Amino acid sequence: DDPFGPGLREILIAEHIDLTHTPVLAGLPNGVYFSEVDANGIPHFHFLRKHSAGTQTFVRQSLEALIAYVRSSRALLLSSIPLAVMEERGRIVELMEAVRPDTIVAFDLNYRPALWPKPTELIELLPRRWSHRLTFASSIRLARLFAAKPPNTTE
User: Fold this and answer.
1) How far apart, in whole angstroms, are the C-alpha atoms of residue 148 and residue 72?
2) Helix and strand tally (H, E) in the chain?
3) First and final C-alpha spacing in the chain
4) CA 88/CA 107 separation, integer angstroms
5) At 77, phi and psi to the nearest 5?
6) Which residues of 36-73 are buried (b: 16+ CB within 10 A; e: fewer)?
7) Strands, DSSP E only, in the chain?
8) CA angle 124, 130, 134 (to 5 degrees)
9) pLDDT, tens only, 26-41
10) Global pTM exceeds 0.70
């Protein structure tokens, strides 16, 4: 519910992206994420999501309805970036458990220390027990998360 919302929805609809579980929440803006590269080539990320509609993903919708919707899909892609700001994000574990084995769950680690001041919170959400699931992560991001330096890696 902000000046960007109608344009974003128009673009997503034009791209045939289903917005069934993408409600417009009155008074809550979209979350935005900016990235920039400084003069030294170092990337910097800016997140403006703390009080956005995205924080309400699992609060304002029925978990049962989300489970039914995901079960009707071939795959579900999750990322740690939006999970960092979602309220009741533990419900994502319930969702992932409920859709097994009907749906492939792909998890993009995409770890950002600024979003996870307590890395153990993210580690607890990682889909370790879903061996048939896919987890995408560069070894350097895994090393940042687990505070270990990988040998000879690039991002």
Assistant:
1) 39
2) 6, 5
3) 36
4) 18
5) -105, 125
6) eeeeeeeeeeebebeebbbbbbbeeeeeeebbebbeee
7) 32-37, 43-48, 75-79, 104-108, 134-136
8) 100
9) 887 777 777 888 899 8
10) no
